[in-house]
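Intended use. Records such as the Saccharopine dehydrogenase entry shown here are meant for training and evaluating sequence-to-structure methods. They are not intended to support clinical decisions.
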Amino acid sequence: MSERTLQMKQPVLIMGGSGQAGSDTAAVLREWYPDLPLAIAGRNLDRARKVADELGNATAVTLDLQRPDLGLPAEEDFSAVVAAVRDSRLYGLGYAQERGLPYLSISSGLVGIAPEVVAGAQRASAVPVLLASHYLAGLVVLVALDLAREFGRLDAIRIAAVLDDQDAGGPAALDDLERLAAVTSAGLVRRDGAFTWVSGAEAEVGVPSIDGVVLPGQRIAILDVPSLALATGAGDVHFDFAVGASAGRRRGEPASTEVLIDLEGTGPSGDPLRTRRHLFHPAGQRPLTALGIALGVERLLGLRGEPAGPGLHTPEALLDPALTVERMTAIGTTFATV
């Protein structure tokens, strides 16, 4: 039996699988891989069963994040562990490491990632660990890297994202936003090649929406900044973020999500080059976040390409930018030139 066949027989454990991010990810994986079994793990077993029954080829299990064994039966076998909910005790990561399973997380954030990095580094040879606490689980980074291929040298990357306040996610996602906001109001930027923190008035910015409205926002600390800076060598990188009414909602439509990606540098011939794209999805952040997670699971398991090797990984280290843009376009994302 091939490794891929074996992986398709063992369920992917989705912690928080009955929440928005988890259930949406499960739906994407089910669409791509009808034969891939899924284990929907949640604190409320009835909610988990409802999600599992709707998916088919899925089971529901009770999740206890205060126990190192997650409250799961000892005889259960899985192919990967996805933390679609905050794993504050890192029991999910420990569970994966003990059993040799790939692990993906999305909610640590830049300011809370140190314990996860240390835990992963201490057992770097055990399992692949995908740190995907980026915006939209890494999709913005990958779109920017796809655009960056037009450049000979990239000097500056400026990201500006609008999250509709009616599209911030479920209770767990709202808790994450509140927790990260409480930890720091400073933003991490790369300026003249150096990583530095900005705060106060320097961190207050206007974030342009796709319809021209400018929302008050903040320059934030997010993993997209070091990911983009180190992947491209750009000396100036920042990520601006606003929460408020999106362009879609101002038109009387559902909440949308939108991200301005602004790249500046030189082309292959050395001439000045600037590219600006507005990423837009009419259904908000949920389908894109789920897509980002599903792409990570697919790569970790080797369902497309080779399985990821042991160690710490970020989305841009594992995923193909061109394929990512193709998948985003297929689910209704548009990229408008500004």
